[in-house]
Design a protein that fits this description.
Distance between the termini: 15 Å
Structural class: alpha/beta
CATH architecture: 3-Layer(aba) Sandwich
Low-confidence stretches: 81-107
Largest sheet: 4 strands, parallel
Number of strands: 4
Helix content: 25-40%
Shape: globular
CATH topology: Rossmann fold
Radius of gyration: 13 Å
CATH superfamily: Response regulator
Mean pLDDT: 74
Strand order of the largest sheet: 2-1-3-4
Number of domains: 1
């Protein structure tokens, strides 16, 4: 595993805390942004990968990514509800839609896939 900085933009603390704990447990440095105000920290944090929820309470992932001028190559789209592939046409990593399922076996697969995706995106930047 390479050392990488990961930003998580997710307004639901249950999901952002879970994802952050998983990512920190394998050695990544993590910044969690749950509010519009917290997004200001992303520029100084300079993440290698940004995990972005699409349906934020204060905006959409597409709008936030454009506002922050984040390169599409750094973005990984995450979803805490049912997977809706319709919003993945924005050019983000198309193979990176995750459904955080309450089922333990599915959750283990999703966690491994998420970590694999972070590694892949971080090494390609």
């Amino acid at each position: 595993m390479i050392h990488a900085k990961i930003a998580i933009v997710e307004d639901d603390h249950r999901y952002s805390d879970c994802i952050a704990e998983l990512i920190r447990s394998v050695g990544y440095e993590v910044l969690v942004c749950r509010t519009e105000k917290e997004l200001e920290q992303i520029a100084t944090f300079a993440p290698d990968v940004v995990l972005m929820d699409h349906d934020l309470g204060f905006s959409t992932g597409d709008t936030v990514a454009k506002f922050l001028k984040l390169p599409k190559s750094k973005l990984v789209s995450i979803s805490n509800g049912t997977c809706d592939l319709s919003y993945c046409q924005c050019g983000w990593s198309k193979k990176s839609i995750f459904d955080l399922s309450p089922s333990e076996s599915v959750r283990q697969i999703v966690c491994k896939n998420l970590l694999d995706m972070i590694e892949k995106v971080a090494t390609s930047v």
